[in-house]
């Protein structure tokens, strides 16, 4: 009889979560915990928290939705504040937990937390079980031996497609009826069995789930007041709500409800409408949406409505996400190095003085650069946490090549502001545009003026997000 403690990380869902299913299967009693890590509240180079206010709000909503789902199944979700590698073994020991279970992460900081946790748990005789939950194809199933992961996306995608990567994606878990409107999912089996004393430890851990967590910090308030626009109409603001139920609703609506997927290829570069692209990224980033679930549902759509460029392109984009994630797992800290995986200095490496650099960063954050397209995109990002892919490419290129801001600083600013921040996708795309990894052409400089004319010909996007 094993008492199991399940530690939720960026896998904040109960449906299609292999790590969670394995834990439930192994358990005679099980409890669920989320640990708020204070290291994430440290500041970026721009003086704003790494976990910015949009993502903090999104996380709070996600945890509340998860707690609701767990409660419907007779469980609770405990939230504690501290370093997971210290707090979890303590809780496990005090509660005679036999197995600590969790989802594996891809970024080096999180991996080193896992390693330390493993050592601590070994000392006290608590077993550990972990699994991947963020991939279409798990690292172990990847058809590339050590050292041979393709450096370019095209080679990566071509090989995966040739090897029919679909066969590595497990069949859909049985409790889900895909083409029906979203339901609350059930955790099968064990109901009402909980660990006893976690509540006490929770109380003592010093975590207060108060509104400070989602409200702007002082630095964020200053940033907001610099870009404040009182009457941003709701219809142009892509404000996303966190949670597995919201993710399932969006997934259903985009693919089967409104069927926006049927025009994805044509609209994906759009700047203003919620129907332009899937908007799945924020839910994928914190794991409240399973990428395999998205894949299977696109395939279901194709089975009924036929396959074509539009639906194929959603999978194509998900393979970009996959490409960066696998590279991050294999390269570790080198993924974040200024010289990138090519060990190359970025074209835009420069000798700007620190004050000059800070002034340029401030101009970007105050949305007062010389390019209105960049300013509009930054204003949308700061106010909503979202920016389109076209916007991100242009802002990143402008910061790197026109303003000569080192790409690693740009990546840190996005880390704070993006609601869908994902270490692999964010740092991978920045490195790609800077030309230090993944791009044999050596960087992507966009002509931002031309891009504005091509993608916002009527000027409606810039007008919507201008002061
Ligand atoms: C500088 C820069 C930083 C970025 N940072 C992030 C980030 O932190 N988190 C993040 O999820 N995406 C990031 N992206 C990728 C992309 O911009 C977003 O995934 C996309 O805009 C999210 O909107 P969507 O869900 O509507 O995308 P869609 O166009 O609907 O695409 C579907 C899904 O495919 C994946 N995807 C699409 N484009 C990319 C891409 N270029 N790289 C990796 N995955 C992709 C995402 O998971 C996305 O949800 C970044 C891109 C750039 C240029």
Q: Care to describe what's here?
A:
- By secondary structure, the chain is α/β, with parallel strands linked by helices.
- It has a domain at 337-464: DNA Cyclobutane Dipyrimidine Photolyase, subunit A, domain 3 (Orthogonal Bundle), CATH 1.10.579.
- The chain is built from 19 helices and 5 strands.
- Strands 3-2-1-4-5 form a 5-stranded parallel sheet, with helices on both faces.
- The longest helix has 23 residues, at 309-331.
- The radius of gyration is 22 Å and the shape is globular.
- The site of flavin-adenine dinucleotide (FAD) has 28 residues, from α10, α12, α15 and α17.
- The site of flavin-adenine dinucleotide has 28 residues, from α10, α12, α15 and α17.
List the helices and strands and how they pair.
Blueprint: E1 3-8, H1 18-26, E2 29-36, H2 53-72, E3 77-81, H3 84-94, E4 99-103, H4 108-124, E5 127-131, H5 153-162, H6 198-204, H7 218-227, H8 244-257, H9 264-267, H10 281-285, H11 291-305, H12 309-331, H13 354-365, H14 372-384, H15 389-402, H16 407-417, H17 423-434, H18 448-455, H19 460-464
Helix pairs in contact: 3-4, 8-11, 11-12, 12-17, 14-15, 15-17, 16-17
The chain binds flavin-adenine dinucleotide.
- How far is it from the N-terminal to the C-terminal residue, by CA? 62 Å
Number of strands: 5
Based on CA atoms alone, the radius of gyration comes out at: 22 Å
- What is the CATH fold-level name of the domain at 337-464? DNA Cyclobutane Dipyrimidine Photolyase, subunit A, domain 3
The run of helices and strands is: EHEHEHEHEHHHHHHHHHHHHHHH
Task: Identify the CATH class of the domain at 337-464.
Answer: Mainly Alpha
List the total number of helices. Answer: 19
Percent helix: 40-55%
Enumerate the spans where pLDDT stays under 50 for 5 or more consecutive residues.
176-210
* Strand content range: 5-15%
- What is the second-level CATH architecture of the domain at 337-464? Orthogonal Bundle
> What's the CATH H-level homologous superfamily of the domain at 337-464?
DNA Cyclobutane Dipyrimidine Photolyase, subunit A, domain 3
Sum up the overall morphology in one term.
globular
